[in-house]
Structure formats: structure tokens, C-alpha cells
Write a structure and sequence with these properties.
globular, 637 residues, 4-stranded antiparallel β-sheet, alpha/beta, 8-stranded parallel β-sheet
Length: 637
């Protein structure tokens, strides 16, 4: 394998070149090749940058056109409605979509009866403080989008638009979640605060959580009062959800016509709006978090509510009220995203770490695993593992805490996955391969066992390989076929940045040794040592070799984040940070030009070269049997 820093032609310049790449991916056994980009990171057309990306824009269509024929899937981020003070998509609503993803330009056209004036739309684009850079302007567009959508709503109410009956049908079809979410919007107006724990009225805090018949009657009357007083606010909220639903469907169909499917992202978190609406289904006094680890001495206090196990399932194993709610959510997500759903993260579904609200997520402060703490004074009532299954020499937050489980216990741990997630997929005509399981980080025995029992596809993050462990699951030779493999996720630095920090370190040398062993199987030991040394000192060569590893491994599914594809040297999300600068990186508006220029400089993903080298890395015999496709790849390099 040699290093090449220049590509003469763009591999995306012709259908012929794309077909060659697709053939090479098939030779390497790749069933799915997904492009990762959260919707807010999508580009804009020149002069049409409002400050936030959307998969519903014309620019998004151009990006899909560019990627189609090579990529089979678009891996999007969470699509829920976010808060004005927090751009993180992982705190968004579970049912309501984010109005920021509404493409305003469409509302100025005949299709939407010109309900938004073109002048308003242009003013928003012209005043966007980040219109000339590939970053979102979250605070700006949050307010500007709201003003524009209110103008559109006023015009929609007062015009004879052909979409009005569709709007009424939409409200009726989705009222099981839409009424709750829009009612919360009314209460934010009533209390001038969108954080319900700060509301002064205990009735309003618990409006959907009555404890007796008297409260049911009282709360029902209050709900009717609010619906009458804030009917316009409620209908406006529903209108925004209607618009985004229509636009999303058009975008999904467009992508499918181009041979690409969209994969949704379901976070384990619940928003404030969801917490308020479904608090009867949550475990009172407990929060979902992360135990202390290398990155956080005190653990991570996520503050998200925990679904009450006794509300998920009834004693006879049937779905309880909470379980029905969760299944409806997944059915909605699978219906709207035929490419499937990425679950972030599986540990949170199978073996979640919970802590007492107001305390740190540490063992000494009462934290533990919800289903794996038979010795815990409170959590023991939910335990699936028994005391005999525990290794008491290992602390409760460690992977090796549970030693063994029966088949019945494994199915008990996997009940939520089997009956709710897989069950929802099957009901809309999809199978379990439409479930992308984010199982990175701490993998306890119950999680591993459930993944194996249901033959689910997990993730392998090659940037996070532990090179001193020969059998580490993220190393090329150990990656299993039923996996989604990637160099990094939205939480990681681009591979070039990682390589710059890794060279000239012990980790760099150990990575080099492993890569030389795995990707140069026919080289002599002396040659492998020379290769390892070079990898450990040469950042571009290390970058290239890690990308080759991505395609040379046996994983059937590959994902790549847009920064690594385009060759951008910037970070989308730095975990633990907040503010407008985080979650803000976007695909440049001139993405094709950026890709081609970075390709020539050896920065962007050089697919023909990487795939050629990946085929050769499978060994001399494999390469000899695939000389024809190697020559085709060389013809487009």
C-alpha cells in the first residue's frame, strides 16, 4: 500500500465512476454506505442561507444528487424541537419535529399559497450573521424563524389555501401526541416560561398526571379553559408540525428516488415537554446518567427522566401505558424513515445507569444499574440479575459486574428491544436490520447478551481502538460482519485531526503495528515493522491507512461523517460544551468545489484509491481475483 496525495478526477463526476465505486463496495461486501450529517449541517444555496441547515432545501437536493449512486443512506441526527437556550439536538422532543427544519423559501411559493412574503425571507437571509461561513447561527435563526412562521400562520388562516383540509386531517391523525405538545406550548405562554418545573401552578405542572377522580375533573376543566384561551397558540404549534411533516415527506421521497434512504436518530433522552406530558410513566426521583469513568470523575448528570419499568410492561408481559407510548414513537419513526432508526444508545435501553435526582451518579450516592442491582435497597425491585449472578470483586458500575445470565434473564433484559423496537419495525414492514445500535462505550454483559440474542447490528469506531489489546473489537481483524463501522461519530474529531495528535506517540506506534499486521498480510515481518514506523510518524499516511481499514474490515455497513468525507478540519460537537458555537458546523455551500479541491490536496476521502487499497489489503489472492475492479478503480483515479 502506498500513499497518494492527489486525485486527478472527481469520483463523483460521472455515473460511470459512481458505478465503479458501487461495484468495488459490493466486492468488499458492503451492503450499506451511509453519509452522516445532522439536518442543521446541510448546506444552503448562494444567497439563501437563513442560518440553519435543513434536509428540505434545494441545496439538500443538490447534495443528495451529488452523493447518490455511491451512498445508500443518509444518517441524520435527532429531529425533535429544541430549546432557545440549547442547540443540542439530543435534548429535543420525541414526537414533535423541529420547526427550524422548515424550509422558509417553499412558503413563498404557489405550493404554499405564498403564505410567507419573499421580502421577509430575504431579510432573514441578508441579516444572517453567519451567511458567509459554514456555521449555523442558532440564536439568530431561532427567533427569526419564529417570526417568519407566525407571519405564515396568519396568512394561512386568512387565505383560501388548498392545504387547509390536509391540515385538519393531520391534526386528527396525530392528536395523541400533538394535543399534549401544543398544550405545553400554551402553558409556556401562560407562565412566560418554557421550563415547566418553574411554573407556579401545581395544577398546570401535573395537568396530564391526575392522581384521583376529583383531579381528573378539575384538570379536564383546566385543559378546556387553556384550549379556549390559547386556541391560536395551539393551532399555530400544530401548523408548524404540519408544515415540517409535509416537507419531510417530500424530501424522503426525493432521496428514495435517488436510491438513498434516511436513517433517523432516536436519543434515549426526553425533553422537558415530554417529561411534563408523560411524567406518569417515569420513575419518580430518578434520572438517567453515566457512571464515573476516565472522562468524568463524578459521572455525567444527564438529568433525563427514566421510564418506570412497571409502566413499560404489565405483570403478564404485555405492554403497559409507557410501553404503548414508546412503541407508538418507534412506529412513527420507522414509518417516516424507511432506512431505519439509530438508537443512541443501546445501554440506555437495556442496562441503564440511574441516579437519585439531585445527587451525583456515583455508587456511594445511591446510583446503580436499573435492572442489574439486586443488592440495592431501592433498585432491587427492578433487578433481572440475581445476587448469585454478581461478581462482588468488581464495582457495580463496571462492565464485568455480572458474570452470568440465563436465557430467560437475557430475554427479560431484551423485552423492550424485542416487543417495542423490533415489534414496531415489523408492524411497518421493516426488519431488525433497520435498527442501528449505538453500543459504544461501556458494554455490560446484559447489553452484549441481548445484542447477541437478537442478532442486532452494533457499531465499531476504529478511531477508538485500544491498540495494546490484540483482540479489541474495534480493530480491523476483529470487526464482525454484522456491524456498522466508522472512523468517528458526530462527537469525534475528524480523522486528520486525530492522526495529527496520534503520530509520534506510543499509541501511534501501536496503531501502526496493528494496521501493518492487518492490512499488509503478505508482507514480511521486517516490512511490517517499517510500515508501522512510517504510520506512526506520517499523519497523512496514518489517515489514509485508517480509511483503508474502514473498508477492508469485514463489516457489512459503513458510515462516514461529513467532515471526514469532505476533508474538513473542524469539530461538530465537543461533548460537555454548550452555546451557539457547538453543534454549529455545516457542510459548505460550495461543497462540491470544497470536496474536489480537498481531494487534490489529499484531504478529502479519495474513494477509488481507498477502495483499491482495501481490496489489496484483503490479501494477494483476493486482489488477484479482483484485478478487473482494481483496474477500473485506477481508471477513475
Amino acid at each position: 500500500m502506498t500513499y497518494c496525495d492527489e486525485q486527478k478526477k472527481s469520483p463523483f463526476a460521472s455515473i460511470e465512476a459512481k458505478n465503479i465505486i458501487k461495484e468495488a463496495l459490493n466486492v468488499l461486501g458492503k451492503k450499506h454506505f451511509a453519509f452522516i450529517a445532522h439536518a442543521n449541517s446541510f448546506p444552503a444555496e448562494e444567497g439563501k442561507n437563513t442560518g440553519f441547515g435543513t434536509v428540505n432545501s434545494n441545496a439538500a437536493k443538490k447534495l443528495i444528487d451529488f452523493l447518490s449512486g455511491v451512498f445508500t443512506d443518509l444518517q441524520l441526527g435527532p429531529a425533535g424541537k429544541t430549546k432557545s437556550i440549547d442547540a443540542s439536538p439530543y435534548t429535543g422532543t420525541i414526537f414533535s419535529n423541529n420547526p427550524l427544519f422548515i424550509d422558509l423559501e417553499q412558503l413563498t411559493t404557489d405550493e404554499w399559497c405564498h403564505i410567507l412574503s419573499y421580502d421577509t425571507y430575504k431579510r432573514i437571509t441578508e441579516n444572517n450573521p453567519n451567511k458567509d461561513i459554514n456555521k449555523t447561527a442558532y440564536s439568530y435563526i431561532f427567533n427569526a424563524q419564529e417570526e417568519a412562521l407566525k407571519e405564515a400562520w396568519e396568512n394561512f388562516k386568512n387565505c383560501d389555501c388548498h392545504l387547509k383540509q390536509k391540515f385538519e386531517d393531520f391534526k386528527e391523525r396525530n392528536k395523541f401526541w400533538l394535543e399534549n405538545d401544543s398544550l405545553y406550548e400554551a402553558l409556556t405562554q401562560e407562565h412566560n416560561n418554557d421550563y415547566w418545573p418553574m411554573w407556579k401552578s401545581e395544577v398546570d405542572k401535573n395537568l396530564l398526571n391526575p392522581q384521583n377522580e376529583e383531579q381528573k375533573a378539575q384538570y379536564a376543566q383546566r385543559i378546556n379553559e387553556l384550549k379556549e384561551k390559547y386556541s391560536d397558540v395551539i393551532n399555530y404549534y400544530s401548523f408548524c408540525q404540519f408544515v415540517i411533516s409535509i416537507q419531510n415527506e417530500k424530501s424522503r421521497l426525493y432521496a428514495q428516488e435517488k436510491g438513498m434512504k434516511m436513517i433517523a436518530d432516536r436519543q434515549v433522552a426526553f425533553s422537558d415537554r415530554d417529561n411534563w406530558a408523560y411524567q406518569a410513566y417515569f420513575l419518580k426521583g430518578w434520572c438517567l446518567g453515566c457512571p464515573p469513568d476516565y472522562f468524568s470523575e463524578d459521572g455525567q448528570m444527564w438529568g433525563f427522566p427514566v421510564m418506570d419499568p412497571e409502566k413499560l410492561f404489565n405483570k403478564d408481559g404485555s405492554l403497559g401505558e409507557g410501553g404503548i407510548l414508546m412503541k407508538e414513537l418507534y412506529k412513527k419513526m420507522f414509518t417516516e424513515n424507511p432506512g431505519g432508526v439509530r438508537i443512541d444508545h443501546m445501554v440506555g435501553l437495556i442496562d441503564p445507569w440511574v441516579y437519585v435526582a439531585g445527587k451525583k451518579p456515583k455508587i456511594e450516592e445511591g446510583a446503580g444499574r436499573l435492572y442489574s442491582s439486586p443488592e440495592h435497597p431501592v433498585l432491587s425491585r427492578y433487578a433481572i440479575a440475581t445476587k448469585d449472578d454478581l461478581n462482588y470483586e468488581v464495582e457495580a458500575d463496571k462492565e464485568e459486574r455480572i458474570l452470568k445470565l440465563t436465557e430467560e434473564q437475557i430475554r427479560h433484559y431484551g423485552a423492550l428491544v424485542e416487543k417495542i423496537v423490533i415489534g414496531a419495525a415489523k408492524e411497518v414492514g421493516l426488519d431488525k436490520d433497520s435498527i442501528v445500535c449505538e453500543d459504544l462505550g461501556t458494554l455490560t454483559y446484559p447489553v452484549v447478551s441481548v445484542m447477541k440474542e437478537y442478532n442486532l447490528q452494533g457499531m465499531k469506531l476504529i478511531q477508538f481502538v485500544v491498540p495494546e489489546k490484540p483482540e479489541h473489537p474495534y480493530r480491523c481483524k476483529n470487526i464482525t460482519p454484522r456491524s456498522w463501522v466508522m472512523v468517528g461519530t458526530h462527537d469525534n474529531e475528524p480523522i486528520r485531526m486525530w492522526a495529527d495528535k496520534t503520530i509520534n506517540t506510543e499509541a501511534g506506534y501501536l496503531n501502526g503495528k496493528n494496521l501493518a499486521q492487518d492490512l499488509w498480510p503478505d508482507a514480511s515481518e521486517e516490512e511490517k515493522e517499517q510500515i508501522a514506523v512510517r504510520i506512526s510518524k506520517d499523519a497523512p499516511f496514518l489517515t489514509q491507512t485508517k480509511l483503508v481499514e474502514l473498508f477492508a474490515c469485514k463489516a457489512e455497513n459503513v458510515q462516514i461523517f461529513f467532515t471526514d468525507f469532505l476533508g474538513l478540519y473542524d469539530v461538530y460537537n465537543r461533548p460537555g460544551t454548550s452555546g451557539d458555537k457547538n453543534w454549529s458546523l455545516r457542510i459548505p455551500d460550495n461543497f462540491e468545489e470544497v470536496y474536489n479541491n480537498n481531494l487534490k490536496e489529499g484531504k478529502a476521502l479519495n474513494l477509488p484509491l481507498i477502495l483499491k487499497l482495501a481490496i489489496e489489503a484483503r490479501g494477494r489472492e483476493f486482489a488477484l481475483n479482483n484485478q478487473e475492479i482494481i483496474k477500473k478503480l485506477e481508471s477513475i483515479m
